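Marked as duplicate of an earlier ticket. Keeping the data here for the record.
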Amino acid sequence: MNILVLNASPKGKNSTTVHTALYLQALHPEHTFTVLPVGQRIRSYEKDFAPLRAELEQADLLLFSYPVYTFIAPYQLHRLIELIKADGVDLSGKFASQITTSKHFYDVTAHRWVEENCFDLGMNVVRGLSADMDDLLTGRGQREARDFFDQLMFSCEHGLFITPPARAPEAERTVYQPQLPAAAKTKGKDVVIVTNCAPEDENLRNMIADFRAALPFDSRVVNLREFPLAGGCLGCFGCAVTGKCVYKDGFDEFLRTQIQSADAFVYAFTIADHYTQSSFKCYDDRQFCNGHRTVTHGTPIAYLISGDYRYESNLRMIVEARAEAYLPLLDRIRQTGVTCILVHMPFHMAIFDPGAAEDIFPQFPEIEHWYMAGHLMGGAMASQFASGHPDEIDGLILMGAYIYGDYPDENTLTVYGSLNQSVEDHIDYTENIVEIEGGNHAQFGNYGPQKGDAPAAISAQEQQEQTAEAVEAFLNRWIRTEKAPLRGFFSACRKPPRRPEQRESRGKRGRFGRILRDRMCFLHRSVGCGAFLLRNVRESSERN
């Protein structure tokens, strides 16, 4: 079989991902592998697509190889898909699959996006491999790669392909017409509408105009198509040190002066290729030039989306999870009388803003007692922050996570699903532990399925309801003068005490905690990794 590996990583041969394909190539000399660094050559293909067209026509199987970048694939792969569709090269009937590397944050949506575009091209799609970044260095990771390839070949031979999702029905499209009354404008607030609206896109243009008319604040429009972007993020991490991008196109200055300075952001785009035109993805990726800090920290964000949004389930997962992955849980906790603050993290990765909580505390000087909570890695990073700031944090709430560092067990609530075995195996303490029968890892948030997570036996709503009840009981006992451990709560699900040999790992936990602190890790708000601060309003008047 002729296998064409489309290496969409901007790092080319230095890509971690492509080495899995090279490993498979070494194991299977009976197949012909051709590896193309399409991520690095995307500009040349824009000028002359013929060389790539010839390779695509000769291939039996297209194997997309890329790292997961901000919820989907790198800009370079988005642009490649646009070029393939624009050229019209016939790929119908060919096989397609993919290999990615990530920390499994939105790898599901990345894979689905590639699958959807392959379906558009009439290809037969086989489920891909989502590997961790260092899997190829382990025996388990190598075995998974071999198993993936064996399954890929078996599927191609026997026709075991993914079923395409339902498409939007053909219908005459009417252009949206402005209809909202103009509102009086309040001065002093700057709302920026970031869009990639094409000159001929009357529908989106009218939506933006109507929104601006009804908005009670002054607003301005920044069109990404008008900025001369020199290329997509190279993943070089140079900006993490210098705060400046290696490109000399002025994007970092444009980002800080034209966008980051706004009081609120509105992202407006038309659905294309199951996301939007690639300039928006280039903007998304290039935001790393902000020294790996978010441009939207603590700022209201909204979306204006033109197209058949209801038929784009994967896009909905991306947009809605970015906006509200943990809002249902926090809203339920809020109903108990607790004010909840969701801390937005740069690129949904906490390592890029390790001191975010320090910026939150001064905004609420009237609050004396703070509780920090987090989900999975967010819990680990919240635990680390609490350990380093014991005078600022009154309590710690961990969901699908366990204590890292030296924070006291008696001041910590640990909640996890009974199907999340990896968490249970690491809990080496016995106080304030709630196990939710039938719960899994992902359902503490509303971001969809996660690789390696067992299907839950209860609904997300039920899991979050029990979590909120556990949090309420934990916080209520702090309001009382006594701080008795939360024993017997959800007694049917309560975790039994650890055996002595299981407690021996306690010292290792503290050591790992120090390693994390040295690496300046903090809170996560990402797929499977959320972090937020809770402040109990009732405490201000009832405690002390």
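See parent ticket for discussion. The chain has three domains: 2-158, 186-322, 325-542.
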